[in-house]
Structure formats: structure tokens, C-alpha cells
Amino acid sequence: MDRSELALLLIAIAGGAIALLPVLRHVWRERRRKQWFLRPFPAEWHDLLRTKWRLYDRLPPDLRHSLQGCTQVLLDEKRFEPCGGLPAITTEMRLLIAAQAALLLAGRPTAHHRFYPALVSILVYPGSFKDRGRRTFSLHEEAGATRLGESWASGSVILSWHSVKRGASGDHDGLNVVFHEFAHQIDQTAGDPNGVPAFADPKDADRWSEVLGQHFEDLQDDIEQGRAPLLDEYGASDPAEFFAVSTESFFERPRDLARDAPDLYAEMAAFYGLDPVTWRKC
Ligand SMILES: [Zn+2]
Asked: Ligand 1 mean position to 230 CA, how many Å?
């Protein structure tokens, strides 16, 4: 082999290695995920969730197991950053946020997009915060409501710790900032957020759009006519907010949703692979 042939051979080997990199990265990531998923869940974390998250104790054992696995993967993959004067991210903060975000994943079949692929950082503020420029989110402005957060397709979710705690301790009010913002992340994974997440089968997407579209209009009508709406009024802002608000009610008030909007409940149950009306009542 002369020098030019050797050079060509080396170039071919290097090219092959570069082409293989994404495959190797994927294999390595899936292997790491599996390890974290299967790792025993620390007993003190289990106790902490039982104390701080009302819903956790009601989950069926299989689902709780899957949720624990997804929680550990999220804790491994996502960065948590204290903001707005919050001195540090505590174990309680990381756990309470990751475990609630994991509930949206725990019943869904294994898929590449499962672990909020666009999400890099979760920014945690103590309470109210200013977003990038214009609006100020303040607990006082929202008078009783406690959904203070943002989700960005560029890779971050912003949460008020005060709201995270309120949502987790729960009072069946249908408000949960973690469910809300992570539903937006799922929506954003499919492109511009429009209330229609990614579906493998286009027929499922069509049915979803039809059912949610109808309830979105009904919510707007209820508000206009002064009737007490089934879902939080914020869901009438646009279809993306409707999906996020429906997700909150699906987990926080499943019996109300199943009774008053069975078709909407059925869409949510099929999408999340979960049936919260069968969970133990608290
Ligand atoms: Zn929203």
C-alpha cells in the first residue's frame, strides 16, 4: 500500500467513525437511562414525596415504580438552577419538580422523545419573577391562583418554587404549575406549540384536535355567557394553554373531568397512558 492509498484508508476510517458518532451517542444515552431508571429509589426520597406531594401516595404500585425510574432519569439529565435570590436548589426542590414532571411520562410507551428532549435547564425562582423583558409574574397579581411558570422551546422551564409547593400539596383546584409547564414542553417537542402534541398515528392527532378543539370553544362560550367553566379560564387563551390546563385538571380533578367531559378525559387518558379516576381517593 503506498502513501496515497494509506491516506485514503485513514480518511475512510475517520469518516466511518464520525458517521457512527450519533449512533454511539444514542446507544450510550439509552444505556445510561436504563441504569438510572432501574436504580433503587432512595427510601428517604420516597418518604419525602409521600409527605410533600398529595397525589404520590395514591398512585398504583406499578405506576409509582415507573415514575420513580423516570424521575431518576430526569434528575440525571436536566440541570436545575437557582434564580432570583434563591440560595440553592435543595433535594426537595429537585425531587418535587422532577417527580411531578415524570408523571406525564410514566404511563407513556418508551419512545425516543420521552424525556423532554429539548429541555436542558429548569430555573427555579423563590416566588414571583420577571420574564425576559416584559411581564412580571407576581403572586399578588394572580390573586389566589398559583400557576407561575414558563416553558421555552429553546430549552428551559421556569418555575416559582412557591407555586410548585402549592401545586403539589394540592387542594383539587386544578392548578399545578409543573404539570402545566411540562405539558407545554411536550407540545413544543412537536414544533410550534398549538395544543397538538406528536402522535404516531395521524388519525389519533385528528381525533385529538377535534375533541380538544370542541372543548376549547365550549370553554370560551362558557366564559362569554357567564357560566361556571369546567376548566380554568386561562385555558381559553389559546389551544396550547387549553392542552396545558386540561392536563392539570386530568391529574388534579380526574373525576370531575371524566364526569363532565368524558371524551376529553378519554383523549388525555389515551395520550398519557394513565387512568387517574381508578387511583385511590385521598
Ligand atoms: Zn401556559
From this structure: 17
Provide the pLDDT for residue 111.
55
CA dist 56 → 35, 67, 115, 170, 276 (Å): 23, 10, 20, 11, 12
CA of 202 to the centre of ligand 1 (A): 25
CA–centroid distance, residue 157 to ligand 1 (Å): 11
Beta 136-137 vs 149-152: how paired, if at all?
A: unpaired
Entry pTM = 0.88
Q: What's the confidence (pLDDT) of residue 141?
A: 41
* Tens digit of each residue's pLDDT (9 = 90 or more) over 251-261: 999 999 999 99
C-alpha 92 – ligand 1 centre gap (Å): 24
Q: Which residues of the chain have pLDDT under 50?
A: 112, 133-146
CA dist 276 and 237 (Å) reads 26
**Chain-centre distance of CA 61, in angstroms?**
21
Domain of 228, CATH number, reads 3.40.390.10
Residue 224 falls within a domain, yes or no?
A: yes
Distance CA 211, CA 282 (A): 29
Ligand 1 centroid distance, CA of 24 (Å): 36
Q: Give the chain's domain count.
A: 1
The rounded Å distance from CA 146 to ligand 1 centre is 12
Residue 110 is predicted with a pLDDT of 60
